Here is the input.
Amino acid sequence: MGPMNTILLVAWAISAVALIVLVLMHSGKGTGVSDMIASSMYNANAGSGVWEKNLDRLTVIAAVVFIATIVIFMLTYPLGTVSSLG
Here is the structure.
């Protein structure tokens, strides 16, 4: 595994932790099963605060970095590093 893959692995791990933390920081929008059923009546003003908008942006950025590192890592990971048992 080369230095580029090591950097990608570190970026992937940081983005994974950041994504978990950012998702957990979001405020709950619903109160239970009734809100899941009546999701069409969602209040559009619920996430209009500056803090919530910035949190949304950071969450999207972390998700994009997470997905991009996975795709790049899939393309650059050296083949033949997993030994077969047979």
About this structure: Residues 1-25+50-79 form one domain. The mean pLDDT is 77. The first helix runs from residue 3 to 25.
